[in-house]
Amino acid sequence: MVMSARLTESSVLAALTEVPDPEIPVVSIVDLGLVHRVEVDGDRLRVDLLPTFVGCPALDAIRSAVEERLASFGPPVEVTFSYEVPWTSDRISPQGRSRLRESGFAPPSPSGQRTLLDLDVPVPCPLCGSRRTVLENVFGPTQCRSIRYCTACRQPFEAFKPV
Amino acid sequence: MSGTAAPVVVGLDELLLSMADDEFVIGFSDSEWTGIAPLLEEDVAMSSLSQDELGHAFALYGLLAAIQDTDADTIAYDRDLADYRHARLLDHGRGDWAMTIARRYLYETADAVRLEALEDGSWSPLAELVAKIRREERYHVMHATTWFERLAATDGEPRVRLVEALLRMGNDAATVLAPLPAERDLVAAGILAQPFGTLERRWRAQLAPTFDRLELPMVPSLSDPMRARADHSASFRWLHGEFTSVRALDRGATW
Is residue A81 located within the same domain as residue A104? Predict the structure, then answer.
């Protein structure tokens, strides 16, 4: 932990890259695109986050993790959640996408789809790379995940839901 | 007119409460399918859909709580049965799978029309939340439509049960888009794009080709707007007892 680090927006943002997402800990909240705004104003430190889903049950855990990580900067940390811009799965960074893939999650396809057929675009298998995968269930173990199946390596896998 | 402070508009409270109660009641009812849905995939789907609905309800109760200087849990759990404002469409009990799908289809398609009329509204906290909710609800419409078409197109029991469900919900089908008493103020303030009567006609026009093609009995238009969100059923009395039971045991319990 960095004690009494210099308080700037970029040092805060750098610290937030060390806060993992509670449901998919291989990616940070920065890689997921959750951080909307960091405000440093004298002795005030404010972080505005975008929920991935409105009903995401991990928001309280994320808030606590951010407060804990930023505590060493000194000033009280105010964490807010807003919908000022909607979080979309297109906000996940290239680094976040490769980390998802490395840990067996297919990163989301572009979020523009309108129908179930559009949604069933080929999603490469994160395990073997084959594009011969099918959508098993749009809904998965958390709100942000879908279940797919790879017909090449015959493994089910999870894909980030495009929203 | 835009900004985050709640505008003084008669009818904003009832709009937020009706939407939140709709999402809360359908989310709570359908979560009962977890573990007993006809397919494993549907256990997962209904759990996820219900989690979305309860999340939307919580966020909408939160906007209302900020206006009324209270908290979301108090609004969600501490009201008498008669003070809930969800549509009567959601008052028919869980029923069988066909009933659930028919209700979800009618609700999700109507809710989509309602959300579209709110997304460009003048009060930014609601407009922004609605923009986010719409991105999630698109999956709900897909899910309900896929199942609705599948049951309707399967001769024998699935189709028979679906038609029975539509007939049973009958006059309550259009209650989601029932006019609100003070909706003129919402339209005048730019919060709601059109009155609910217009939205109901748009919704029915969207449904008509599907019902024609599937040769299903078209849902009747709204007949008793004053009763659309009142006079809740015995099955809601049971549900209300369920979802208030924890608060009844422990007053300070949180969501």
Answer: no
Residue B41 sits in a domain whose CATH number is 1.20.1260.10
Name chain A contacts of B33, Cβ cutoff 8 Å.
Answer: none
Residues of chain A with Cβ-Cβ distance to B138 below 8 Å are 114
Does B7 map to a domain?
no
Q: Is B144 domain-assigned?
A: yes
* B243 touches A at CB < 8 Å: no
* 3-state SS, residue A61: helix
Is A113 in the same domain as A80? no
**Among A40, A67, A87, which residue terminates a domain?**
A87
Assess whether A79 and A124 both reside in one domain.
no
Give the contacts of B44 (CB within 8 A, at least 6 positions apart).
A137, A139, A140, A141, A147
Using the structure block, give the residue that is written with the tokens 């009995």: B217
Predicted-complex ipTM score? 0.88
In order along its 255 residues, chain B shows pLDDT tens digits of: 445 677 778 899 999 999 999 999 999 999 999 999 999 999 999 999 999 999 999 999 999 999 999 999 999 999 999 999 999 999 999 999 999 999 999 999 999 999 999 999 999 999 999 999 999 999 999 999 999 999 999 999 999 999 999 999 989 999 999 999 999 999 999 999 999 999 999 999 999 999 999 999 999 999 999 999 999 999 999 999 999 998 889 887 775
Final residue before a domain boundary, out of A30, A56, A87? A87
Spatial distance between the Cα atoms of B99 and B152, rounded to a whole number of angstroms: 12
Q: Which two tokens stand for residue B27?
A: 């989310």
What residues make up the domain containing B112? Answer: 12-249
**What secondary structure letter does DSSP report for B218?**
P
Domain that holds residue A99: 95-160
SS3 B113: helix
Helices (H), chain B: 12-30, 40-68, 72-77, 97-116, 124-152, 157-169, 183-188, 196-213, 234-243, 245-249
The reported pTM is: 0.93
Q: Note whether residue A1 is domain-resident.
A: no
Q: Chain A contact for B48, CB < 8 A?
A: yes
What's the number of domains chain B is made of? Answer: 1
